[in-house]
Amino acid sequence: MKSKFMILSILLALLFLPLSGTSAQTTPGLLLPIGAGYTDTYTAMAQHAVANAKGDMVHILVLASPYSTDAEHISEGERAQNLKDAEERRLQTDGACQRNIPEGSTLTCKVELLPIFTQEDSNNPDNLAYFTDDVSMIFILGGDQETGMGAIINTPVEERINQLHEMGTIIAGTSAGAAMQSKIMIASLNIGYATDDGLQAGALKLWDTEEKHGFSFSIQNAVLDQHFFQRARMGRLVNVITQPGMPHVGVGVDAYTGVVSDSEVLRDVFGLYTVTVLDAETYHSADGVKYVEFSETRPPLISVRNIVLNLLSPGDVTYDLKTRTSSLGNPPDVLEREFDALTLPAGAGPLFLGGDQLDTLKDSAILEKFKAVAGENILIVATGYPSSRSAETAIKKYTEGLGVQVQSLVVGDEPIVIPDDVTAVLVVGKDTSKVKVEALAPLKDFWLAGKPVMADNAVTPVLGAFYSNHEPTPDDSELQELATQKSFWQGRTKMAPGLGFLNITIEPQLLADLRFGRLFSLAYNHPEFIAIGVNKDTAIMLDENGATALGLNGIFILDLRKAKLQLGTNDGFVINNGMLDIFAPGESIQAEIADVNARFDPAPTPVLPTQEPTATATVAATPTQPATATPSIVPTSPTAMEYAETPKPAAFPLWTIAVVVAIAAALLYFWKRK
Q1: Which pLDDT tens digit goes with each residue over 519-574?
Q2: Which of 225, 255, 340, 438 could form an S-S bond across to 36 if both were Cys, CB 3.0 to 4.6 Å?
Q3: What is the rounded radius of gyration, in angstroms, for the C-alpha atoms of the chain?
Q4: Which residues does residue 260 pair with via DSSP β-bridges, in sequence order?
Q5: What are the residues whose beta carbons fall under 8 Å from the beta carbon of 636, sequence distance 6 or more?
Q6: Is the pLDDT of residue 208 over 80?
Q7: In which element (H, E) is residue 442 found?
């Protein structure tokens, strides 16, 4: 009897042996989304690839499908140019790999460029031979994520990438290659929408269906966006995460910056700048979102409260996307805030804070509101212009917009003198760094005496407690990086005391001029004040009824009064549990209680007419226009033998399991008969 039990035990052990052997091989690989760029992130990326070497080789595949202009068909000239351009990135990746091999190690680097740009390429069996089981990392280049994912989706190549990731292969990607690492993928802005239209309903094209999506294994509990602050994409990410059926968490990775996603835990930010996490779930912001109708010619605008904001820089801070928890601490169950600073002092006149009305002065609803309280004798004051002539030109445009006779003056070095008969002042400017702040001091006394004041564009920020003392964002790429991204490093934004009309900080042209870095700098360095971002064609009106949003876009309020602040190893801002609110035109600007137990009846998503694409010339998504010459460097496809000889994880044959089961059944039958 004992022998029968022993035999049965051995057979059962053999039966379950393959199950335990297989499970040890199923640790998925890391995800490394990079916001954009290459040079500043190669080192960290290569280090992860080297650490993930299988055997004596660091095997990296470079996928350049986002270079294509069409996922179905490209010309031979475009293919040749794509291969040539991508080969440069392959060489750079190989160099980074070589530089990061530990001294004395026997490891070698093998970096291959995949000739995959279309669906036909992804269905070509020869191309599957590249995807051997020893691949350490697949690196996806930048370009267009819609064509990049479109070239491989629902093909053997996609299936094989899924398998390799499940077996431990790291998936890294920059720009479009990062976007593809989000299961729900932001494909693009829809036709007719620009960067500063991101808050409008219907602005975005999403891949969020069974047929169209990012990699199935990629980030599930959040939606990822790239080039985040470089291209002012805060509005469009908020747009996505507040929609029904979407993950209500967003991750914005800035250019020249990457982050490790390890089983949905964000850690080890690398590169130069920041990673932003927007949480519209904890306080049910997405459930409470409103779509505000404010114009017959524009789609509704998103209005949302109590988004929890975390900002990560290089260092040891982590964020779990599944639980929405940070290593620095969790948001409280209930958070009460007030915007008392947006209240007029006793006896003060109405105050208008404009983000730049110059392009919409004709029939401007904001100017009409100002005219309604301004009285009969308006003075236009111009400051912050490069010359008197340009200041006079601006005065003329604002005068035409008002449609009434006005007095005017251009500010010099001396304090302005406001004539006794003036009933309201409109003060305008172009460049905050050129605004004569001290010369405007008499304006505050005029306002406190009960007279209306409107400030627009460059003058608006100097009315706050502090302001960022900078010129408009330049077009030059290096100077633009300094203005938009390096402003997230402590000490890179010049700040000066303002006139103190209100105890707030303000930044105009937030989206259109890419000024989120300045807004965050003001909020981080003066967290006792709420920081307000006012967009173009938008303003805040303060009167006896409180503060109201006006115009054609949203008002952003960044509130760090209860946040935890520190610096990363690069002196970049780290913010834990800041708060973000966005107000639409016509809304009263008031704080709402944030409560994890709040309940909302979600507003229906607006149904908008489908826009038909216009007939336009195709714009190539590749770094350079396709050339007709064939490059001399063309990747060589591995042979089937090379693929077959690559070591594979041990797998227990199915026929062996069948034999064991048959023997066990026979033994049980024999045992019972005895």
Answers
A1: 999 999 999 999 999 999 999 999 999 999 999 999 999 999 999 999 999 999 99
A2: 255
A3: 30
A4: 267
A5: none
A6: yes
A7: helix 442-448
Nearest Cα to Cα of residue 195 among 228, 161, 220: 228
- CB proximity list for 334: less than 8 A, separation 6 or greater: 593, 594, 595, 596
Which among 670, 325, 255 is positioned nearest to 488, based on CA atoms? 255
Measure the CA–CA gap between 273 and 226, rounded to whole angstroms.
12
Tally of CB atoms within 10 A around 47: 15
Query: What's the pLDDT band for 623 if we cut at 50, 70, 90?
Result: very low
Distances (CA, A) of 577 to 247, 252, 542, 564, 620: 19, 16, 28, 7, 41
Output the CA torsion 541→542→547→552 (10° steps): 0
pLDDT confidence of residue 561? 98
Q: Whole-angstrom Cα distance, residue 183 to residue 202?
A: 20
Residue 353: what residue type?
A: L
Residue type, 594: A
Do 631 and 84 form a contact (C-beta atoms < 8 A)? yes
Token pair 């009285």: residue: 375
Contact of 611 with 299, CB cutoff 8 Å: no
Rounded to whole angstroms, how far apart are CA atoms 311 and 575?
5
Could you tell me the pTM of the whole model?
0.88
Ramachandran angles phi, psi of 500, nearest 5°: 70, 35
Cβ-contact 234, 277 below 8 angstroms: no
466 neighbors 429 (Cβ within 8 angstroms): no
Mean pLDDT estimate for the chain: 89
DSSP string covering 376-419, please?
S-EEEEE-S-SSHHHHHHHHHHHHHHHTS-EEEEE--SSPP---
Alpha carbon separation from 650 to 20, 132, 267, 271, 401 (Å, rounded): 11, 15, 31, 37, 76
Q: How far is CA 277 from CA 310, 342, 357, 507, 544, in A?
A: 5, 27, 31, 22, 37
Compute CA 251 distance to the chain's CA centroid, rounded to the nearest angstrom.
6
Non-local (6+) Cβ contacts of 352 within 8 A are 366, 369, 370, 452, 453, 454, 455, 456, 539, 540, 541, 542, 550
Q: ∠ CA 545-550-555 to the nearest 5 degrees?
A: 100
Residue 232 vs residues 281, 399, 491, 512: alpha-carbon distances, Å: 22, 32, 21, 8
Contact 472, 479 (CB under 8 A): no
Kindly state the tokens that stand for 359. 């392009």
Quick one: average pLDDT of 426-452? Answer: 98
Q: Which burial class, exposed, middle or buried, applies to 654 when counting CB atoms under 10 A from its CB (0-12, 13-18, 19+)?
A: exposed
Strand order from edge to edge, sheet including 319-320: 108-114, 57-63, 135-140, 170-174, 31-34, 257-262, 265-271, 319-320, 325-326
CB 289 within 8 A of CB 278: no
Alpha-carbon torsion angle 472, 476, 478, 482, nearest 10: 0
List the one residue out of 178, 142, 40 whose CA is nearest residue 481: 40
Tokens describing residue 469:
């003392």
